[in-house]
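Quick one - first record:
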Amino acid sequence: MDESRIPESPIRIREGFRGQVQHVLPRPLLDRVAGHPLLQSLLPTDIGWYPTAQYHYRERPEGAGEHILIYCVAGAGWAKLRDEFFTVHSGEALVIPANTPHCYGASNDDPWSIHWVHFLGGTGEYLAHVVTPTSYKLSVDAQCGATVEALFRACYALFPGGFILSRLIYCAQVLHHLLGELFFNNSAFSPAMRTSRFHSIESTLTFLRQNLHRSLSLREMAGHAGLSESHFSRIFKEQTGHSPLDYFILLKMQHASTLLSVTSLSIKEVAAAVGYSDPYYFSRLFKKTFGVSPRAYRNSPKG
């Protein structure tokens, strides 16, 4: 497909595809429920499924009032957002922030099958801007894709009986799950892809979990990732919110809490199991993490 201009088509269709699902919530209803505490952060406004959507085309020169997510599960399509043109293939999702001029449509040769949803709210505002004008689409791994499809279908099943508030709230909760899977449990995507420095840290996280009994240095962690210490630290914090050493301590303390709960190991033995020869230093770190000493944690009721 020529990526320099919008593909010409003899027919352009907004909707009406065989087997489609489409639910557009009445705007007066949305106005009434927008202030509900469970809908303020994420409010779905339109949702649907267009299978083999031949000649599908949509253009909004001023953008939409909501954020839009399109997930392509078969075939292909294209999109133009502002001045950026690109193709969208099976296993890719497209995120269009609110008020962004755009048009999109199905491939003439291999029309796409898409799940789609429009949404408002603070959570949506944040997630819609995780991607940038140079990265409006994201790849979706197979496991995540299967979960996202199932969650879309769960939403579709809610509305044939009417737009009842409880169903709308449930749909919003399912959509929270769906977006969480797509953005934060999807090995094919990371918020760090917003920069050219993207480098997956999954192998590093596995390396850390496998070496909780050791005292790893930042140099060893960066060396395992094949990066300089400064580059590694920057990427690691982007993807976890913690420095590598702080994250490693958190992993150690988490494992220590499990050992304290399910074994009869002494405090000294637990400390040694997570790489600390000094049980007093271990106890200080544990208390800083959990707010109580290892002994108090072991004796506290749980569950």
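second record:
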Amino acid sequence: MSRSFIDSRSSSDPLRRRLRRLSPSERAEEANAFLDLYFREGDADPSDRASRQREVRRDLERHGFYRHTTEELAFGARVAWRNHGRCIGRHVWKALDVLDCRGLTEPDAVAAQTFRHLREADNGGDIRPTISVFAPVTGDQTPVWIESRQVAQYAGYLETGRVVGDPANVEMTRICVSLGWRPPSTRSHFDLLPLLLRDAFGRRLVYATPEGSVREIEIRHPHYPEFASLGLRWYAMPLVSDMILTIGGIDYPCAPFNGWYMATEIACRNLLDTYRYDLVNAVARCIGADTRDPLWKDDVVLELNRAVIASFRDAGVRLVDHHQASAQYLDFDRAERANGRMPSGDWAWIVPPQSSALCPVFHHAMTDLKDVPNFYRSRATDGADLSLSRVTEERGRILTRADNWRRRWRDWRRREI
């Protein structure tokens, strides 16, 4: 495994700027609520709850943090996925394979495990939902974390006013090149970027992706051989690596996780969005679309999705179409309600970008409770409103009023910081 680095420390820690700001009382409240949930739903002896809560309370008072057991970590990671309102594929949240990697604290070890995760979660094409959880933030100490948005992603080169590759990764590509990464001698639209880490001192390190770690699918159309001339391909599995896992008041900034793709993520967004590959006109030429027809772009979307679905099927790699995913989301919704839980859902993220009104989720009311445990990218965006929702708890009038007061006070305080 090759790597290189430069010291990019500054007076402002980029990870610290992203972490949620919790007061000691808020952290204790989240820890206590998580343990209540764990002993209520998890595979744990209820008689141990009081002693475990005393132990955690003592650690928080003395050190400002506590350490989850392996069982608590696994349960918390699965619940974080269950609570994350932007994911349509949560019907298999219980099957998430949680790898406790907290003992791996050196950048080389973190990179090696991340690439191992990439290979093993592929599972011969029968992709297995997996998360590798590395060291948490402990007091003033921040651990190694991954700066790459995804472990597998394509470079974007800015050349004479145009972008070759993925425009979303132009800056990331520039950074990797400045750190010593050498792109292929013949640059293409689909060159895999290396993995970009930051060590505990804030230094950037770049690791070349080992040969054979990333399965890529060539996109071919079953009825339009002209598709081959586009040279399209995409990596088989999204391994998201820039989100922070928060469990019981403890943040894990390095917790790469994967599911499998929904076809529209690749076809409608990655390949067709104007700020990404913007292939609408190129695909239209391949299928002979009549651009005088007001619905010609709809034909492009349909045929590119058909190509992606057929290509993944022919390669034997798991992928779901948007109609299947919508039905699965409603199964998840019903199961959660049957278990006395209010499911979280962000409508704008759950409803697929193709045939939206034909998908049952389009007509389904949703509320994103932004409950914890959860995943977030930054306290300035999706992490700003994460808190204990307590929406399905029997709290009583006085406790409910106290919850509302604390929430208003917390929101005001965070706006003032």
